[in-house]
Amino acid sequence: MTRRFAAITIGLAMAVGAMIGLVLAGNLTPSPAHSAPARARETATPAVKAIAPAGTASFADIAEQLNPSVVTIDASARGTRYRRPGTAPSPEPSQDPLGRNGERDRDGPRRGAGTGFLVDADGYILTNHHVVDGAERIIVRLSDSRSLRARLVGSDPDTDIALVKIDSPTALPYAKLGDSDTLRVGEWVVAIGNPLAYEHTVTVGVVSFIGRKLFDSSFDRYIQTDAAINLGNSGGPLINARGEVVGINAAVSSRATSIGFAVPINQAIAILPQLRDNGRVTRGYIGVKLRTVDADLQRSLRLSSASGALVQDVAPGSPGERAGLRPYDVITRVDDANVVGDDDLISTVARMRPGTSATLTLVRDGRVVTLPVKLAERPQRDRAAAADAPVPSGSRGSLLGLSVRALDVDFTARYHVPDSVRGVVVWRVDAVSPALDADIERGDVILEIDRHPIRSVDDYDRAVAGARPGDVMAFYVYKPSVDERRLSTVRIDADPAAARGVPR
Questions:
Q1: How many CA within 13 A on the CB side of residue 156?
Q2: Cα(56)–Cα(193) distance, integer angstroms
Q3: Two domains, one topology: 284-377 and 392-500
Q4: Ranges 68-72, 87-91, 120-124, 272-276: which has the least confidence
Q5: Which residues are within 8 A (CB) of 159 and not within 5 positions of it... i.e. 6 or more apart?
Q6: Would you list the domain boundaries of the chain?
Q7: Burial degree of 148 (CB within 10 A; 0-12, 13-18, 19+)
Q8: How far apart are CA 238 and CA 172, in angstroms?
Q9: Residues taking part in catalysis
Q10: Which of 25, 260, 264, 446 is deepest in the core (most CB within 10 A)?
Q11: Is 89 a residue whose pLDDT tops 50?
Q12: Could you tell me the CA-to-CA distances from 328 to 219, 294, 300, 305, 363 in Å, in that order?
């Protein structure tokens, strides 16, 4: 009995030892706790497979393929005191006008460093309008270290696109253009450019948003990306995973390091023929302030449909006024093209040539009405605050070098302008002008001139009408970028030609 008990004890000990060994070896798993999923359940539901980003080799292939077509653009003008633009709380052009860090240089020439890319073997190069705007001399540096003098073929401020041309005895490598309309949010993209003078820098990110509006709410369709874009990247290509250019890098956020913007390449493709043939782009224009019809507007106005573009205002003397358009009209068609919202209407009209006639179908007080309209030419961005706004006062060739516009509700809300501020908004400052010397920048609000209150564009016109070469004027301005009021003195050049700048 004792022997039998001993044998049983030894057998049990051996079994327990074997089980412990299996557990330690990982060949036998203890029963799961109630809070843990059962293995059978895990195998029954396949795990979601993570989508890994494209491999390093594919990005390397894209860079190797596209880098030879990317160029450095040096644009220069005569000497003046200059300050890096875009310090207002808004997206900034991703171009350093000095090619370095934006320091002031009173006596030396104004220089800007940007990027561009070849679009054919003959030497045509796409870049941003703001890279070459006002330049008297443009030098293009190729990837093979050659530097060639370039000429400006055409430029379009509305889309911030410019076309320049170099001449080379040999065929040049060029980039393949893609279709920006097929882009999707989350798609991988590559940016190539010359940030802070570091030539041919390659960065990678994704498309963060499509159709972002920055400067002109009626016309902008910017691609937003988190691919690193910095000063000097302006005009460089934004490339998809197939090695096709889908955008032209144009701006960066002034308050973030991972928010950049690119002009869709389809906008460039659409205007290339006009830039090559005419040097500028003309677009159709009706002259109305619009709003998309949404559910709330449909309910409040008792409209039959939430589709169309509602007319909020009609500019005096515009084609819309001559055609008989009225506030509260809802435009639903232009010729045979349906209008879903205001973007559709503006895009459709902009594609038509000035002087052509179109038929507008609209709903007025519940009735369908058709009106013929003869289109005028759409004002460009540097001459107007928006596509359907009045042309602001102060031409680029004025003695002060300023363009201004009315202080409206949109600007006040966007830049948190205090209710107590009354004045006009600086819409443009010439690159070579007394106003820029006085640190007056785009986005500043002019409150007083020579202690005279400025409440409207007419007030501004009257205040500057008597300005003469050699005069000194006191400008009291509010700067939204720093929430401060400042007094600046503007000394008008004794030589009127110096204030006007040298035409391109």
A1: 25
A2: 19
A3: yes
A4: 87-91
A5: 129, 219, 263, 267, 268, 271, 281
A6: 58-278, 284-377, 392-500
A7: middle
A8: 20
A9: 130, 160, 234
A10: 260
A11: no
A12: 22, 14, 12, 14, 9
pLDDT for residue 153 is more than 50: yes
What span, in angstroms and rounded, lies between the C-alpha atoms of 124 and 476? 45
> 109-118 and 357-364 as β-strands: parallel, antiparallel, unpaired?
unpaired
Distance from C-alpha of 347 to C-alpha of 218, rounded to nearest angstrom:
9
Helix H, strand E, coil C: the string for 241-264 is CCCCEEEEEEEECCCCCCCEEEEE
Mean of all residue pLDDT scores within the chain: 77
CATH topology of domain 58-278: Thrombin, subunit H (2.40.10)
Report the CATH architecture of 284-377: Roll (2.30)
Q: Give the closest residue to 248 by CA, choosing from 259, 258, 233, 227.
A: 233
d(CA 438, CA 476): 11
Q: In 45-100, which residue ranges form alpha helices assigned H by DSSP?
A: 56-66
Closest listed residue to residue 281, CA positions, set 163, 386, 183: 163
Q: How far is CA 33 from the centre of its chain?
A: 55
CA distance readout (Å), 425 to 318, 382, 444, 477, 490 = 24, 14, 6, 10, 17
State both tokens at 336.
């045979």
**What does the alpha-carbon distance between residue 167 and residue 319 come to, in Å, rounded to a whole number?**
43
**Tens-digit pLDDT profile for residues 245-297:** 999 999 887 676 788 999 999 999 999 999 999 999 999 999 988 888 878 77
pLDDT digits (tens, 9 = 90+) for 39-57: 333 333 333 333 334 444 4
Determine contact, residues 245/265, Cβ cutoff 8 Å.
yes
CB 214 within 8 A of CB 160: no
Q: What is the reported pLDDT for 344?
A: 83
pLDDT at position 373 is: 95
pTM (2 d.p.): 0.60
- Write down the CATH superfamily of domain 392-500: PDZ domain (2.30.42.10)
CA distance 51 to 477: 53
**What is the residue-wise DSSP string for 100-121?**
SS----SSSEEEEEEEEEE-ST
Give exposure, 390-406, as e/b (b: 16+ Cβ within 10 Å): bebbbbbebbbbbbbbb
